[in-house]
TrEMBL record, chain B:
Belongs to the binding-protein-dependent transport system permease family. This is Spermidine/putrescine ABC transporter permease. PANTHER family: INNER MEMBRANE ABC TRANSPORTER PERMEASE PROTEIN YDCV. Its main location: membrane. It is a multi-pass membrane protein. It is found in: Cell inner membrane; Cell membrane. GO terms for biological process: transmembrane transport. InterPro entries: MetI-like, MetI-like_sf. Residues 65-253 form the ABC transmembrane type-1 domain. It holds the Pfam family BPD_transp_1.
Length: 311, 268
């Protein structure tokens, strides 16, 4: 012990010791590197992008005019662009609702009935698809939904292929094959984001105190009443927390609709096309303000509903 | 009441949901062995190991793999340093603007990835920074910080500050305190966070398409194959490879953090 205490200290080491005795200074030094990184690189480029939405593209020369103008914003309000925004928001909402419905039984079973090994298995079985490769999952669905793919094969074997053909003949949701229809896009979105919904709901359900449920039963409520009036309201912040992910991720995705879906653009694809082939960074910047605004409103409501405590 | 029986319907829908989550991954594995290379015919007309040999001999796959590996390694290293610092600062201290700092940490994953990507790309253009491994790493580290932070912050909260003070009182210097007191306490959480960050970076495609320029990481290679297929079975083999490479870090991360605090991976 004494040789530790008596060891000669380098100047750097005594400097750190001195800093540690001043909590504020120590805190500032800890925070400086991550804050600088995120503040300069991330926020810096984010604001630079937003600022560019007030520039415009010269249609003839294809050069970006660096003068303040609102013309890019009026361009964003064109009916074709509004269609893209509405289509994306609608898809995000539908995916969120479908995921909440699919996630609830899994989360409910895992939180209230699964024990020990079973619980670990459930947790792992939800975590694995969450962290496994996004592209691999999208690719798997392309294989499944393709015209000659497994879904057609299964239905054919079951003698139910006429159902698929009838479904594909429907306007709007149908198409030449499932992999080139709104339905296909919808299925893949639901699949890819489902684990993001399960985990927060499960976490919220785990926190429902057992004695509340017993009290409800003691007071004469049927299991159905208990579920409706006790469990569901307490689990709701978890659903909202999960919906932040499903909604935001659908809103900005440009790869899934490109691989599985029709020719209609989604918000992410519009941003991608504007900055890429069109070279119209100002319009791409204006487009990317839309999901930021939508998420800003969404997060404000989510905070009011207590979702942040359930994250 | 925990003892009540689950209804059959609940059990079936829970298990059905889990099967829904996993069977597409199984399909990929089957397709990696198919002898049919022109279409997605199911069931495969025959099984072969040929595509593994073909993929092994493709230099473009090896180049993409090694780029992805290097990027993930450097991005994880940066994220480990920055995420740990942020976690150490935010775990106990209360100060003005604390909520804003934690909002800033989660912002890169709360906002759609395409926004991070395009913002970085336009910033690189504005500042005339050419695309390189460095620009990819810059983007990846930004969203990996929060993964490390999430894992580390829970562990820091359980680390009693009196341990650190005792170490100083007994004459240890700052490096010794970190090495012998702090690190053993947060080590497994950092390892878990690092592995998840690695898996996240290795697999990332949305931000990468904007920051890579002409370089091809493995996910970008796959994306190109998805949009313009050349040899479909080879893509299947690579997909299986990616599944295997990301599987083990995830399993290890689960193993390392399984006691008590599950850091909900929900925040990706």
């Amino acid at each position: 012990m004494s040789d530790l205490a008596l060891r000669r200290r380098g100047p750097l080491s005594s400097l750190i010791d001195a800093v540690y005795r001043h909590p504020r200074l120590f805190l500032a030094l800890l925070l400086a590197p991550p804050l600088l990184w995120l503040g300069v690189i991330y926020l810096g480029s984010l604001f630079a992008l937003l600022a560019q939405s007030f520039f415009s593209l010269d249609d003839f020369s294809g050069v970006i005019v660096r003068e303040f103008t609102l013309s890019t914003w009026t361009q964003l309000m064109a009916p074709a662009n509004l269609d893209v925004i509405i289509r994306t928001v609608l898809m995000s909402a539908l995916v969120t609702i479908a995921d909440a419905i699919m996630a609830f039984p899994i989360a409910y079973y895992a939180a209230r009935y699964a024990r020990g090994l079973m619980k670990a298995a459930f947790y792992l079985l939800v975590m694995m698809p969450l962290w496994s490769s996004y592209l691999v999952k999208v690719y798997a669905w392309k294989l499944i939904l393709a015209r000659e793919g497994i879904d057609t094969w299964v239905l054919d074997k079951l003698g139910l292929k006429f159902l698929l053909d009838w479904y594909l003949s429907l306007p709007v949701i149908g198409g030449p094959s499932l992999s080139a229809s709104y339905t296909g896009t919808f299925i893949v979105f639901c699949y890819v984001w489902l684990p993001y919904m399960i985990l927060p709901i499960q976490a919220a359900l785990e926190r429902v105190p057992g004695n509340l449920i017993e009290a409800s039963a003691d007071l004469g409520a049927s299991p159905r009443d208990t579920f409706r009036h006790v469990i569901l309201p307490l689990a709701f912040p978890g659903v909202v927390a999960g919906s932040i992910f499903t909604f935001s991720l659908t809103l900005g995705d440009y790869i899934i609709p490109q691989i599985v879906g029709g020719s209609q653009y989604y918000l992410g694809q519009a941003v991608y096309a504007q900055q890429g082939t069109a070279g119209n960074i100002p319009l791409a910047a204006a487009f990317s303000v839309v999901p930021i605004l939508i998420m800003g409103v969404y997060l404000t409501f989510a905070r009011k509903l207590g979702a942040f405590d359930a994250l | 009441m925990r003892s009540d029986r689950s209804s059959l319907l609940l059990k079936l829908s829970a298990i059905g949901g889990l099967i829904f989550l996993h069977w597409p991954l199984a399909i990929i594995v089957v397709y990696a062995f198919t002898t049919e290379d022109k279409s997605y015919q199911f069931p495969p007309p025959g099984l072969t190991l040929r595509w593994f040999a073909v993929a092994w001999g493709r230099s473009d796959i090896w180049a993409a793999l090694s780029l992805s590996f290097n990027v993930a390694l450097v991005a994880t290293g940066l994220a480990l340093v920055l995420g740990t610092l942020a976690a150490a600062a935010l775990s106990r201290a209360r100060f003005w603007g604390r909520d804003n700092v934690s909002l800033l940490l989660i912002l890169p994953i709360a906002l759609p990835g395409i926004i991070t990507g395009i913002a970085l790309r336009s910033a690189f253009n504005l500042m005339d920074i050419p695309f390189s491994v460095f620009t990819i790493v810059l983007g990846h580290a930004t969203f990996c910080i929060v993964v490390v932070y999430n894992n580390a912050v829970a562990r820091f909260r359980r680390l009693s500050p009196s341990l650190v003070e005792a170490s100083f009182d007994l004459g240890a210097d700052a490096f010794q305190t970190f090495r012998y007191v702090v690190l053993p306490n947060i080590g497994t959480a950092l390892l878990a966070g690092g592995m998840l960050a690695f898996a996240l970076s290795f697999d990332e495609v949305i931000v990468t398409t904007f920051t890579a320029g002409q370089q091809t990481t493995l996910p970008i290679w796959m994306l190109n194959e998805l949009v313009r297929p050349r040899e479909r079975p080879v893509t299947n083999v690579v997909a299986v490879l990616v599944m295997v490479v990301t599987f083990f870090p995830i399993l290890a991360a689960y193993w390392l953090t399984r006691e008590g605090e599950h850091v909900a991976g929900g925040s990706r």
